[in-house]
Amino acid sequence: AQSVTQLDSHVSVSEGTPVLLRCNYSSSYSPSLFWYVQHPNKGLQLLLKYTSAATLVKGINGFEAEFKKSETSFHLTKPSAHMSDAAEYFCVVSETGGSYIPTFGRGTSLIVHP
Amino acid sequence: NAGVTQTPKFQVLKTGQSMTLQCAQDMNHNSMYWYRQDPGMGLRLIYYSASEGTTDKGEVPNGYNVSRLNKREFSLRLESAAPSQTSVYFCASSGLAYNEQFFGPGTRLTVL
């Protein structure tokens, strides 16, 4: 069975400061991990994905995430927040050897202050 | 390419009415999904279709039915709408079931 926990429902940062959105997962098989972003009243867009290649994954808009198997974590980071980063972020896990059905975290709302 | 399209964008129903939400993708993807999104709940899977000709229940299937009409189209039907089905509905597709998903813009449904 697989599950994913986003540790913060809301994260508030100032523009220009680093962003950290935390995600822990559990999986009985080799996981594929994803981060999606949803801007207000929009659909979800893929930020980045991990599929058993490099553990440090770079995505769009300066975001990156590091897969840490020993910590079962896949935290999303960005060195410097921009106002346009304000959105809802979802961490997702799917098992390449299991049911294949993606499991979504409950989301983290990123608030960026000027 | 249009990607994943959904119709309608908005809908208001009265309790007991029925309706069908339409979804189509032009990426030749095998797998398609229907989710609902409610505040604080993330996205919950209603039904999915791993490949053309197959459909399976997800986490919250009660009150819904689906049809995988062909490889491109996957519709969601509410036979007798209830206020608890007020939500935003998203359709998604993926090339393989464990690959990244591509989402439509959503349908905002209100049931009075």
Shape descriptor of chain A reads globular
Give the averaged pLDDT of chain B, no decimals: 93
N/C terminus separation of chain B: 36 Å
Derived structural class of chain A: mainly beta
Strand content of chain A: over 45%
- Count of separate DSSP helical elements of chain B: 0
The radius of gyration of chain A is 14 Å
Estimate percent helicity of chain B: under 10%
What is the SS-derived class of chain B?
A: mainly beta
Major interchain interface with per-chain residue totals = A-B, 21 and 24 residues
The helicity of chain A comes to under 10%
- Written as H for each helix and E for each strand, in order along the chain, the element string of chain A is EEEEEEEEEEEE
- Shape, per Cα inertia axes of chain B: globular
Give a description of the structure.
The complex is a heterodimer of chains A (114) and B (112). With 114 residues, chain A is mainly β. Chain A has no helices and twelve strands. In chain A, the strands form three sheets. In chain A, strands 2, 5, 6, 10, 11 and 12 form a six-stranded mixed sheet that branches. In chain A, strand 7 and strand 8 form a beta hairpin. Chain B has strands at 4-7, 10-13, 19-25, 31-37, 43-49, 56-57, 64-68, 74-78, 87-94, 102-103, 107-111. With 112 residues, chain B is an all-beta fold. Chain B has no helices and eleven strands. In chain B, strands 2, 4, 5, 6, 9, 10 and 11 form a seven-stranded mixed sheet that branches. The model of chain B has no long low-confidence stretch (mean pLDDT 93). The A-B interface holds A 9, 32, 34, 36, 42-46, 49, 90, 94-96, 100-102, 104-107 and B 4, 35, 40-45, 48, 50, 58, 90, 92, 96-106.
